[in-house]
Write a structure and sequence with these properties.
- This protein is of the alpha/beta class and about 450 residues long.
- Among the domains are: about 130 residues, Rossmann fold (3-Layer(aba) Sandwich); about 190 residues, Hypothetical protein af1432 (Orthogonal Bundle).
- Helix content is about 55%, strand content about 10%.
- It has 20 helices and 9 strands.
- A 5-stranded parallel beta sheet has the order 2-1-3-4-5. Strands 6-9 form a two-stranded antiparallel ribbon. A two-stranded antiparallel ribbon has the order 7-8.
- Helix 4 links the parallel strand 3 and strand 4.
- Helix 11 runs antiparallel to helix 12 and helix 16 runs antiparallel to helix 17.
- The longest helix has 22 residues.
- The structure holds fe (ii) ion (FE2) (2 copies).
Length: about 450
């Protein structure tokens, strides 16, 4: 069919639904994606469908079936009789239909729990394969949510910015090129509409430009701590919005690496723990970004102090700092430091699951990087394990925690303490807590820390 014909083509759907509400939702969705072009023929049972097709062979684009305990024999017969159609099975129990998935003309399983988006994805797929006519609707997943801090970091805007008005309804609120002022945002903050959207197709160019800007900053001498903190926060919030929905693309990998390079350049070859801790006390704004920045920096300063001062080690620790909490959305989740803290918290079961699994989730994201040192995902996966074996998610015995992970955990302990008690001095902290680090790699590191002073490495 020519593209002009296909744009006008009607969509013929033969359907078999037990559940009326699912049938109504399906009709509504089809009408949304093929407005005014759907011919919907509902049938009541597999046997009725088989009899009807036998007597009046029907041509249809789609065969859609929602039937809780189907006879697979009747279903296979109907599918064979309608082998020219695309077959969708809508179900809450996909396992019932597994036997059909190895067939040549295997049906597409649409799970009711994720109905609208999986139906859309399946329709889009078959329309791209030209097995059904093209869709008229816009991709509901084309709009990527970004939070207000990310938006602040994008000004002057390199893309149009939208606000969501209702299901799948977006209105452009700021145009490309706009220099965003706080007064622009006031009415959104007042009405608690602080989630904005950008189009995925447009964000790629924004990400590429941001990576380039960060790389240029990394090359410049003498970037001030304030400018760097701002750049780090804006890159970090952007990555936290984009990566969970788009994965680590080449552009987002470049942003993360450039941001780490910029941070390490500012840190220098001999990072001083006391200077970093002083800096940490002045931190404000997005907690997750500030915490990630500081954990990386403190880990590098500790590494330098104990003589693990190669640039490769600094890069691993800086990148682990950047990535270790990127799947965390809420500040209060990022503030949970130990399993005991999470157990005595008011979080729901789902929130606790997110908290406990974030090291695994973030390590998975880090594996999407090309050419990333392998230690990085180990540090991330282990960053909430504890020397006493009471960490999460694995309760790994202290002696099994890797050297760089142990160092990173100790850096995070110190950062956590300073966030909670700004008067903390790092040497006092390590002396007071030396006892709990007397295992495996922790023991080696704490001994080296306590046997050196900051002046000795100057
Ligand atoms: Fe963290
Ligand atoms: Fe964490």
């Amino acid at each position: 069919m020519t593209s002009l014909d296909s744009e006008k083509a009607r969509v013929r759907v033969i359907s078999l639904f037990q559940n009326e509400s699912i049938q109504a939702r399906t009709k509504k969705e089809l009408e949304k994606h093929f407005p005014g072009r759907v011919d919907f023929l509902p049938l009541k049972s597999l046997q009725e469908a088989i009899d009807r097709i036998e007597q009046h062979p029907e041509k249809a684009d789609l065969l859609m079936i929602e039937h809780e305990s189907p006879s697979l024999i009747l279903l296979k017969t109907l599918m064979e009789m309608m082998s020219q159609s695309v077959h969708f099975i809508i179900t809450n129990q996909p396992a019932l239909f597994e036997a059909l998935l190895t067939r040549e003309n295997a049906p597409e399983i649409i799970e009711i729990s994720n109905f609208e988006s999986s139906l859309y994805r399946a329709l889009k797929k078959y329309s791209l394969l030209m097995k059904i006519p093209p869709l008229d609707s816009e991709d509901p997943e084309e709009y990527l949510p970004i939070n207000i801090d990310t938006l602040r970091g994008l000004s002057p805007l390199q893309t149009d910015v939208y606000s969501k008005l209702g299901q799948d309804r977006f209105v452009c609120v700021f145009r490309t090129g706009h220099l965003l002022e706080e007064t622009d945002l006031a009415k959104f903050i007042l009405s608690k509409r602080t989630e904005f959207h950008v189009k995925k197709s447009e964000i790629k160019a924004v990400l590429a430009k941001r990576a380039q800007e960060l790389e240029e900053s990394a090359q410049k001498p003498g970037v001030s701590p304030e400018v760097m903190q701002k750049a780090f926060t804006s890159a970090h919030t952007l990555i936290r919005d984009v990566v969970p929905r788009m994965g680590f693309t080449a552009e987002t990998q470049n942003i993360a690496k450039s941001c780490v390079n910029m941070t390490l350049k500012a840190l220098g070859a001999k990072p001083k723990l006391s200077a970093i801790i002083d800096d940490l006390k002045k931190k404000e704004g997005d907690y997750i970004a500030a915490h990630s920045h500081m954990v990386g920096n403190v880990a590098c300063a500790l590494a330098h102090r104990i003589g693990w001062n190669s640039s490769a080690t600094f890069f691993k620790l800086g990148l682990a700092g950047f990535l270790h909490d990127i799947s965390v959305v809420k500040e209060e989740h990022a503030r949970v430091h130990t399993l005991i803290e999470s157990e005595s918290s008011p979080f729901t079961k789902d929130e606790l699951k997110l908290i406990r699994l974030h090291p695994v989730q973030c390590a998975e994201y880090s594996k999407q990087f090309s050419e990333i040192p392998s230690d990085v995902d180990i540090i991330i996966a282990q960053h909430h394990e504890r020397p006493d074996g009471e960490g999460f998610p694995r309760k790994l015995a202290g002696k099994l925690i890797s050297p760089l992970s142990a160092l990173f955990i100790m850096a995070q302990d110190l950062v956590h303490e300073v966030f909670e008690h700004p008067e903390t001095l790092s040497d006092d902290f390590f002396r007071a807590n030396a006892e709990k680090y007397q295992v495996g790699q922790f023991k080696k590191i704490i001994t080296l820390i306590l046997n050196t002073t900051e002046e000795s490495d100057a």
